[in-house]
Amino acid sequence: MNGEEMTTEPWPTTGETLIHMSDVDFYYGQGRRDAAILRNFQLEIREREIVCLLGPSGCGKTTALRLLAGFEFPDGGNVLLRGRPITSPGAERGVVFQGDASLYHWLRAIDNVAFGLRLRGVKRAERHETARRLLDATGLSGQHAKYPTELSGGMKQRIQIARVLASDPEIMLMDEPFGALDAQTRAELQDELVRIWQRTQKTILFITHDIAEAILLGTRVAVMRRGPNSRINEIVDIDLPRPRRRDTLEFGQLFERINALIHARPVDERKEARNAR
Amino acid sequence: MHAEDAVHSVATGHHGDPGGRRMSLRAAFDSDLTLHTLAIALLIGVWWLSASLFFSPLFFPTPDRVVVKAWYLLQDGSLLENTWASVQRILLGFLIGSAIGAPIGLTMGAFRRVHAIIDVYVEIFRFIPSIAWLTPAIIWFGIGETSKVFIIVYTTVFVVILNTAVGVKNISPDKINAARSLGANRWQLFMLVIVPATVPFILTGMRLAMANSFTTVVSAEMVAASHGLGYLIWSSRVYFETDAIFVSMAMLGLLGFLADRVFRIMTTRFARRFHTHSD
Q1: Cβ(A28)–Cβ(A188) under 8 Å?
Q2: B279 in any annotated domain
């Protein structure tokens, strides 16, 4: 939680392949082949990475996440976790949603965090102990007994993160989790997430349309093209040292490069359009 | 509501008024309680005035006559006896109806197939007024309490079902998906997410059903009962005791008002946390 910890804990290093999405197609409704959200979507995520999926709204970022979460299934291609197809939602893939509607407003913060453990039949005292520890670790000490409606937007997103961490997932799927927060809170939570990543060595897929946020957080930034028929245009390795600062030349250069990628018209697009016909 | 009040007080300049005493007087005059009292006074005033226009109190008794009659009916015990008879029926029918309606509404909301089937029944039967069932109910259950309670159950059940089912449909998909990705099975999803998230809608359904119960109980008692406020209204007709009819009507209004208050207090006390907003 403080600067000291930053220097003592090592930065996570990339490991084996955890997620593999290959040749994924996903269509609107009942398979209108000309209006795919995702077409030929490819993505590989390795252990302990933070992959930021970046793209304009409506490009299918969230769809990609929902496929990994097991809320949706591909119309073509494979979505694999450690080589096995994803067939349902599961606690090894924790989801942090953009809004606070995913929290249980009738439960106190501590019981929201302990919810996953309760589902697994963990005894009350034990699950509360875990939840208490996680609330403290996500900057929510003193808020344990509050209901979500009594907490600010930033605190509610912290609860969501703690709730997912309680299940000790293999990967955290984060769907624009800070998108609805004010700039100040957003920056705090970005720093907090990096600290959590450092401490827990979790793999993270982080969806955002904010270029700076992607550069600040990601070990890699996957830039998507505009939909329909969307896919990843290019993946940019971010090798800036941490903690990262926005006001460096390198940051600015990366920003420009990624910004250009978002607006670039892919070379193969015309050929693709012909093939689709 | 509170925001409105704030706007209102700014508009009327409550806060900046330097004349302290005048302001507090005005504030007292402007309080909800005062306004409610005024509204009731106005109601009684209009009643009095319009009743005086009739040449005979048999047509429309003035409030004072109704109060005297109420006192008389209180003394001979018949007012309380009849009120209690109605209250018992309402309470029993309302509670049984809610206890049946809420689970049906929950399963309808949660399962598409159940919804598709039960919805047909609901959409047909809810348009048959409960009082139409009175004769069949008497034939099936006899002239006693059961037939009356049955039709109150009937009137309650559909309102509660509809509201509950709507409540389930209104649950944010994120709440469901969050639970599924935390590992909830179908039963856990139902008991730990769908049921608690629907509580406010069930309570709204019950509150609406309460009003229906009042209507129904009076109709039933007018047709087939030897006790109850509906019976009192109907039997007073025979002796042209218009004032007794108005006593019963006032009693029903008062009872409904009280029941709604009690229900709201209980809702805020025991079910507050199930509401998204804390007021």
Answers
A1: no
A2: no
Our CA-based measurement puts residue B175 at a distance from the nearest CA of chain A, in whole angstroms, of 4
Both B151 and B28 in a single domain? no
Q: What number is the ipTM of this complex? A: 0.90
pLDDT at A265: 64
Residue A217 and residue A161 share a domain: no
- Residues B271 and B279: their CA atoms lie apart, in Å, by 11
State the total domains in chain B.
Answer: 2
Range of the domain at A13: 3-92+169-276
Chain A residues with CB-CB distance to B272 below 8 A: none
From chain A, pick out residues whose CB is under 8 angstroms from the CB of B190: none
B155 and B249 in a common domain: yes
Q: Check pLDDT > 80 for residue B243.
A: yes
- Beta carbons of B175 and A104 less than 8 Å apart: yes
| Chain B residue numbers touching A95 (CB-CB < 8 A) | 177-178, 181
Comparing CB atoms, the residue among B181, B185, B278 nearest residue A95 is B181
B77 and B55 in one domain?
Answer: no
* CB spacing of B177 vs A90 below 8 angstroms: no
Separation CA A203–CA A94 (nearest Å):
11
Mean pLDDT within A155-172: 96
For A211, list phi and psi in degrees, rounded to 5: -60, -45
Determine the Cα–Cα distance for residues B237 and B242; give it in Å rounded to an integer: 7
- Determine the pLDDT at residue A2: 45
Distance CA A90, CA A70 (A): 8
Band (pLDDT 50/70/90 cuts) for residue B11 is very low
- Same domain, yes or no: B57 and B88: no
The most confident of the ranges A225-229, A260-264, B162-166 is: B162-166
**Residue B181 structural domain:** 67-274
Q: Which of B172, B196, B277 sits opposite A106 (nearest CB)?
A: B196
pLDDT at B1 exceeding the cut of 70: no
In a domain, B91, yes or no: yes
The H or E element containing residue A236 is: strand A232-237
Chain A residues whose C-beta sits inside 8 Å of any chain B C-beta? 69-71, 88-91, 93-95, 97, 99, 101-106, 115-116, 118-120, 147, 149-150, 163-164, 167
pLDDT at position A256: 95
Q: Rounded to a whole number, what is the distance in angstroms from the first to the last CA of chain A?
A: 55
Would you say residue B216 lies in a domain? yes
Taking CB atoms and an 8 Å cutoff, what residues of chain A touch B197?
104, 106
pLDDT in tens, B103-119: 999 999 988 999 999 99
Mean pLDDT, all residues of chain B: 87
* CATH number of the domain enclosing B211: 1.10.3720.10
Distance CA B87, CA B70 (A): 18
- Phi, psi values for residue A22, rounded to 5°: -130, 135
- Nearest CB to A95; choose among B177, B273, B277: B177
Judged against a pLDDT cut of 80, whether residue A4 lies above it is answered with no
Specify the pTM: 0.83
